[in-house]
Amino acid sequence: MKLFFSTICVAAPSGELLTYWESGHPDEYDIWDLLTRDTRYHEAAKLQGESLEVRVSHYIYETESPGPDTRAEQSHFDLLDAYNELARRHRRSRFEHREDVCKVRTFRLHLEL
User: Fold this and answer.
1) Gap between the Cα atoms of 87 and 35, Å rounded
2) Which of 14, 19, 36, 67 could form a cystine bridge with 1, CB 3.0-4.6 A?
3) Host domain of residue 29
4) Rounded distance, CA 53 to CA 110, Å?
5) Which of 89, 94, 71, 73 is nearest to 24 (CA)?
6) pTM, rounded to two decimals
7) Residue 82: how many CB atoms within 10 A of its CB?
8) What percentage of the chain carries pLDDT values higher than 70?
9) pLDDT at residue 44, as a whole number
10) What is the pLDDT of residues 4-48, one digit of tens each?
C-alpha cells in the first residue's frame, strides 16, 4: 500500500504554524483553490490580505501490508494526527520524519489572493 500525502503549512502573524493534511500531491493551483474555497482552511483564509506565504511538502508512505482500499482518507489523517500527538508527548519524531516515509519535495509559494 502506498499513501501519497502532503502537509500544507501557513504561518500566522502570531508565529503559530497552521498545518493541514492533504491526500495526493497538490500543485500551486490546487493550493490556491483550497485556500480560497475549502472550509477546512478557514483559519488560513482569515489571514489572507493580498498575499500569503505557504510551504507545501509532498510525501509517500509505503508499506507491505495491503490495507483495505475502502477506508476513507480522513481516517488515515486522523491516525497521523494521533501518531504525531503521541510522538510529541514522548519527544519522538513526527510521522512524516520516519525512515519509512519518503519526502518527495517541498516548495514554497507566494499567493496573490
Assistant:
1) 28
2) 67
3) 2-112
4) 5
5) 73
6) 0.68
7) 11
8) 83
9) 86
10) 899 999 987 777 889 999 989 999 889 989 988 899 998 888 876
CA separation for the pair 10, 56 (Å, rounded): 9
Structural domains of the chain, count: 1
35 burial (CB, 10 Å; 0-12 / 13-18 / 19+) is: buried
Q: Which three cell numbers stand for residue 23?
A: 491526500
Whole-Å CA distances, 63 to 6, 10, 19, 92, 101: 17, 29, 24, 21, 9
SS3 for the chain, per residue?
CEEEEEEEEEECCCCCEEEEEEECCCCHHHHHHHHHHCHHHHHHHHHCCCEEEEEEEEEEEECCCCCCCCCCHHHHHHHHHHHHHHHHHCCCCCHHHCCCEEEEEEEEEEEEC
Contact indicator for 8, 26 with CB cutoff of 8 Å: yes
Residue 13 grid cell: 502573524
